[in-house]
Structure formats: structure tokens, C-alpha cells
Write a structure and sequence with these properties.
The chain is α/β, with parallel strands linked by helices. It contains 15 helices and nine strands. It has a single domain (44-371), classed as Alpha-Beta Barrel (TIM Barrel). Helix 13 (299-319) links the parallel strand 8 (277-286) and strand 9. The structure holds ligand G3I.
Length: 372
């Protein structure tokens, strides 16, 4: 019996050995290096891809800076060249932040897009309180535009010359505040002090300062306000008739996962028909459409957002002729840097990178759409 047991043990050992299951472990396999996904947005995109940036993050945050270096070919100055930063008091211009961005762009082969010379919002208190006759206002306006544009001549490829000049609901020119019931003035000091033709003069002054800079009119909501889109197109036609230099239109696209697809298609088609360059200039896609402070960013929401990023990139490629594709710019880099968190204080995840600087599903679907 004992001998029979020994025999069975021997037989078992033989069988196990011959199937590679011996107790004596095989040498461990050589470690496989993790597959590096080195395919970048700028590497696959047929047009410029970019982000608006916060200059202090660019200066102080290596993870942020590395994403810009690796992924983007175009940089927009989010707040750095707005009046409060670049023109903090009547006789003072501060180019420190803008110069840092310009030098980052030129050393790293990025296109620099300046934002924005004239806007009804974000004007410093000294400007809102400025008292002078119409000549003094005109002089202030012209001096600002020409000082800033001349300073970045040869560095900034393009400018948002005028931002958001038309009302949302009816596409009328912003002049006086429409919403008297809130504390927010959606009228425009420029139209009030300089007259309704101030937009044309802003483009003329910018062109005088740098005739090689590409000049854009930039606005939001064209995907849901047909009236605004029509006003923008009427302005372009008027400029063409008067031989006023305008090179492009920015469609900001601060949008969300529920935005009607037809609205996006309609806006791209109408804007492209102007023949001007078309820049998706401030893209972000909100998922918290009801601003629920307790909303959780689920996988399903991430996927819906990813699909929307892909849809927008695909339609842009399809509906805007290649020669007019100025590019797509997201409005900042990671969710935590977005104005939707920092300015609106909403619980949201609108961008391509998460709070830890990691790629989100939106990054991958956007990249695939750019590539196809
Ligand atoms: O830099 C100051 C800081 O020194 C200060 O301590 C802090 C306290 O409030 O404010 C900081 O400035 C803020 C700045 O964002 C930087 O965070 C301003 O108050 C705030 O008004 C500013 O908000 C910007 C907003 O425009 C108004 O200018 C957002 O970041 C910016 O993303 C947003 O961008 C606009 C586009 O220019 C035009 N299209 C719409 C888009 C979203 O509103």
C-alpha cells in the first residue's frame, strides 16, 4: 500500500512537471514597461489645438505647464491681457504677464492668441469711472488698442478685438443694461460713449497697429441664439462692404451635454459661409446642467461629455472648410482651473483633464475625433 502511494506521488510529480506546474517556480518574466501613450492632441490635429491659460499656473505649476508643452499648439491669454491686468490705471500698462506668455509661446513654438481688446465686462473701476468728453473716450479706446497690439506685434498672431457685443435674446447691440432686475450690467460702456460704430473703429485701430495680425470678433451662444448669429453675420457683411479688416469669428462654445446638436450644426454652417476663419475659441462642456451642488461625476456623465467633445470636433472638421479652420481652444486645462469652478463656483467637470491633471474620457474621444 505504502509502495503504491509512493508510486502515485511520483506519477503526479511527473505529470505536473510535464505541464509546467512544478512547485519549483519558473524565473519571473522580464518586467514589461508600461505602454506610454505618447499620441498628443497637437500631434494628431489637422489644425491648431489650444487652451486659454492662467499665467500664474504656467509660471508655478509644472504639471499644468507640461500639459501645455505636450498637448497644445496654441495659447490664448485668458485674463492676462484684459484691461484690469494689462491697463490697471489710466497711464499704466503692465505687460509682465503677457510678456511671460509671449516668451513661452515663442520658445516652444506655440501660436499666441490675444484675448481681448474690447469688452463690455471686466473693465477696471478707473475705466468705468472715467469722465471725459467723447474725444477723450475715443483717445482712451484707441490708445489702449494700439498700445497693446503694437507691444505684441510679431508675437501675437491674432486678437479677439471685440468680445460679446450683442445681446443674447434678440441679437441687438449691447448699449444699455437690459436686465434692470439684477445687479449685472449687460449694456456696454463703449457703445454708450463712442456710439454704435465702435466695433468697426476697434478693428480699424487694431489693423493700423499691426497689419499682419489676424483680427477676430468673438462671442458666445451662436449655437442657441440664431438672432445673435445673424447680427454677427450682418456685422461681417457691413465690414466687408466698407473694406474694414476682419479675418475671423470666434464661436466660444461654453456649452453643455444637453446642447442641441442641430444648433451646433446650424451655427458652424452659418459662420463658415462668411468665408472667414472660424475659431472655436473657448470650448468647455458642462455636465451639471442644473447646477446641483451634490452632483457626482459618474462614468455615464463622463461618457456623455466625451461624446459631446467628439461631436463638436467632428462637426467642425466636417462643416468648416480646412482653409477656415483656425482651430479649437478649450477654456483652460483642468476641471479645477475652469472659470465654471473658480468664477461661477459651480460643481462641475467641464474640461479634458481632471483635478489631478489626468486625462478624462473626453480627452481620448476628442483626440480620436481630431485624428479621424
Ligand atoms: O486675479 C485676481 C486675484 O488677484 C484676486 O485675488 C481674485 C479675487 O476675486 O480675483 C482674481 O481675478 C479674477 C480672475 O478671473 C482670475 O481668477 C477676477 O476677479 C475674475 O473676474 C476673473 O474671471 C474671469 C472672467 O472671464 C471675467 O473676466 C474668468 O477667469 C474667465 O475665465 C472669464 O472668461 C470669459 C471670457 O473672457 C469671455 N467669454 C466668457 C468667459 C467666461 O466668462
Amino acid at each position: 500500500m505504502k509502495m503504491k502511494n509512493n508510486l502515485s506521488a511520483l506519477l503526479l510529480a511527473f505529470v505536473l512537471n510535464s505541464y509546467g506546474c512544478s512547485k519549483k517556480a519558473d524565473p519571473p518574466p522580464a518586467p514589461v514597461p508600461p505602454v506610454q501613450d505618447t499620441t498628443t492632441l497637437k500631434g494628431v490635429s489637422p489644425f491648431f489645438v489650444g487652451a486659454a491659460i492662467d499665467v500664474s499656473l504656467l509660471q508655478n505649476n509644472t504639471l499644468y505647464r507640461n500639459i501645455l508643452l505636450q498637448q497644445e499648439s496654441s495659447i490664448t491669454t485668458e485674463n492676462t491681457l484684459k484691461w484690469p491686468s494689462v491697463h490697471p490705471s489710466e497711464n499704466v500698462f503692465d505687460f509682465s504677464g503677457g510678456d511671460y506668455i509671449a516668451s513661452f509661446c515663442s520658445s516652444n513654438h506655440k501660436r499666441m492668441h490675444g484675448h481681448c481688446l474690447v469688452w463690455y465686462q471686466s473693465n477696471p473701476a478707473w475705466l468705468n469711472n472715467f469722465s471725459g468728453d467723447s474725444l477723450a473716450w475715443e483717445n482712451l479706446f484707441k490708445t489702449h488698442i494700439q498700445t497693446v497690439v503694437s507691444h505684441y506685434k510679431g508675437e501675437a498672431t491674432s486678437w479677439d478685438v471685440v468680445n460679446e457685443a450683442f445681446h443674447d435674446e434678440d441679437g441687438s447691440l449691447r448699449v444699455n443694461d437690459k436686465n434692470t432686475s439684477d445687479n449685472f450690467d449687460d449694456g456696454c460702456i463703449w457703445a454708450r460713449h463712442l456710439g454704435r460704430d465702435y466695433i468697426a473703429r476697434a478693428f480699424i485701430y487694431a489693423h493700423q497697429a499691426d497689419s499682419s495680425a489676424l483680427l477676430f470678433y468673438n462671442d458666445y451662444g451662436q449655437e442657441w441664439s440664431d438672432k445673435k448669429t445673424d447680427s454677427i453675420i450682418a456685422m461681417v457683411n457691413d465690414f466687408k462692404a466698407r473694406h474694414i479688416s476682419i479675418n475671423g469669428l470666434g464661436i466660444q462654445m461654453h456649452t453643455n451635454i444637453n446642447q442641441s446638436k442641430d444648433g451646433i450644426i446650424n451655427a458652424f454652417k452659418k459662420l463658415a459661409a462668411t468665408g472667414l476663419l472660424i475659431h472655436i475659441s473657448e470650448l468647455d462642456i458642462s455636465v451639471n446642467t442644473s447646477n446641483d451642488p451634490l452632483l457626482v461625476f459618474t462614468g455615464a456623465l463622463a461618457q456623455q461629455q466625451a461624446n459631446t467633445y467628439a461631436f463638436i470636433a467632428t462637426q467642425y472638421k466636417l462643416l468648416v472648410p480646412p482653409a477656415q479652420q483656425y482651430g479649437i481652444t478649450t477654456w483652460n486645462v483642468t476641471d479645477k482651473d475652469s472659470w465654471i469652478r473658480t468664477y461661477l463656483n459651480h460643481n462641475d467637470w467641464p474640461l479634458l483633464f481632471n483635478d489631478s491633471y489626468a486625462r478624462k474620457p473626453a480627452f481620448y474621444s476628442y483626440r480620436t475625433a481630431l485624428m479621424q
